[in-house]
Amino acid sequence: MQGPPRPPLTIASEPDDEHQACLKALTAIGSTFKEIARIDDGNGCGIDKPIALSSPLPGIEFKPEGQMRCEAALALAQWMKESVIPSAAALDNGKIVTINQASTYVCRLRNNASTGKISEHARGNAIDVASFAFENGKTIAIEPRREDPTLTGAFQRAASASACLYFTTVLDPESDAAHETHFHLDVIERNGGFRYCH
Asked: What InterPro entries does the entry give (predicted)?
């Protein structure tokens, strides 16, 4: 016996005052972005008040430009400014000049599955970080580094651990096979402010 049909998924509306406060904070931290038209791809996929982020902080490109909610962009900028950049100073590679992303907004289910829950990427809440490029030309790709005894390994572990201060979900290459090549970072709201970091 099947129960009543589930109501169709809808796009969460974003209160204008909260959105404007976020845009103000994003501008103040030095991000480069533009507001874009509401995204509605059906089945709950979409963003009420999306932005296109091209640079989270002055001097750092976000490649390719990514569509997301302001809240996700602000978490990224704060994490980079307060945790990732200070950690990277120990590497002697110069400044971080690019964050290479693997995914921002995309209409799909979690882990690209054919059944199951909608991904936070489909709500504009998630960012997948694939690598960091430095001014000396070096790129640090996100890959399994739990046992990496080098400064690079220490940097990646520090970046992953500190991300949980800014994002409510952090999945790194040690979490599962679907995340071996990137950090998955999202700002989903859970009951009691619960965070899931692996």
From this structure: Extensin-like_C
Q: How far apart are CA 186 and CA 72, in angstroms?
A: 7
> Are the C-beta atoms of residues 54 and 65 closer than 8 Å to each other?
yes
Q: Which residues of the chain have pLDDT under 70?
A: 1-8, 112-114
CB 156 within 8 A of CB 145: yes
How would you classify the pairing of strands 61-63 and 96-103? Answer: parallel
What is the secondary structure of 88-150 as a DSSP string?
Answer: HGGG-S--EEEEEEEESS---BGGG-SSSSBPGGGGT-EEEEEEEEETTS-EEE----TT--S
**Each residue of 89-118: pLDDT tens digit?**
999 999 999 999 999 999 988 876 667 788
What distances in angstroms separate CA 160 from CA 36, 40, 59, 98, 144, one per listed residue? Answer: 30, 31, 22, 17, 11
- Measured N-to-C along each axis, helices 16-29 and 70-79 cross at an angle, to the nearest 10 degrees, of 30
DSSP states of 52-91 as a string? Answer: EEEESBTTBEEES-EEEEHHHHHHHHHHIIIIIHHHHGGG
Other C-beta atoms closer than 10 Å to the C-beta of 58 total 10
87-90: list long-range contacts, CB under 8 Å, 24+ apart.
87/155, 87/158, 87/159, 87/162, 88/132, 88/134, 88/155, 90/151, 90/154, 90/155
